[in-house]
Write a structure and sequence with these properties.
The chain is an all-alpha fold. The protein folds into two domains: 1-46; 49-89. The chain is 73% helix and 0% strand. It is built from four helices and no strands. The longest helix is centred in the last third of the chain and has 23 residues, at 67-89.
């Protein structure tokens, strides 16, 4: 195993220390785990559009709304937002 020196901003160092405390680990192990995870699975930190929409789809399914009802609601909200924006401009 080799040693390297890296400058880390204080705000990130605080997050690393928090993770280490949560895991009962040390700062070095947290950093090694992060590097290992990113290098072995570089797409793991990038969410797909499908993953981002999953909670929205689930909420829609649980709501019992039809697609038509959901579309009407979205159009109504869009109209209200646009009207509010127009009022704030005048």
């Amino acid at each position: 195993m080799s040693t390297i020196e890296v400058t880390v901003p204080d705000d990130l160092l605080r997050i690393i220390d928090e993770r280490a405390l949560e895991r009962g680990s040390d700062r070095g192990q947290v950093i090694r785990d992060i590097i290992d995870g990113v290098l072995r699975n570089p797409t793991s930190s990038v969410q797909t559009f499908d993953a981002i929409l999953a909670p929205i789809r689930q909420g829609f399914a649980e709501s019992g709304m039809s697609e038509h009802e959901a579309l009407e609601m979205l159009q109504s909200e869009l109209k209200a937002v646009r009207a509010e924006r127009q009022q704030s401009l005048h």
